[in-house]
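User: Hi! I'm working on a homework problem where we have to compare a predicted structure to a textbook description. Could you give me the structure for the chain below?
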Amino acid sequence: MKPEWLIGYLVIMNLAGFLVMGIDKRRAVQHAWRISERTLFLCSLLGGSIGTWAGMYVFRHKTRHWYFVVGMPLILLLQAASAVWMMTAV
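Assistant: Happy to help. Predicted structure tokens:
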């Protein structure tokens, strides 16, 4: 995979992660149908960890749930470590 494609993919996934957190927060306030926590984590795992983590604090959403407060930065840390490992293994 070319680096340009990877960067584009990560930008899109992080924007999606940020937007998903904002949409879910709005729906929570309106007592509307919500986005599942599984989907929020999946978005993070698929490369949107920076966006979902930023969205948590910008929208003040899911910040009282320990599994989000610990899980989102942990996913980001693991993804960063994997990226460093892959770049140095080549």
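For your comparison, note the following. Residues 8 and 69 are 27 Å apart (CA to CA). DSSP finds three helices and no strands in the chain. Good luck with the assignment!
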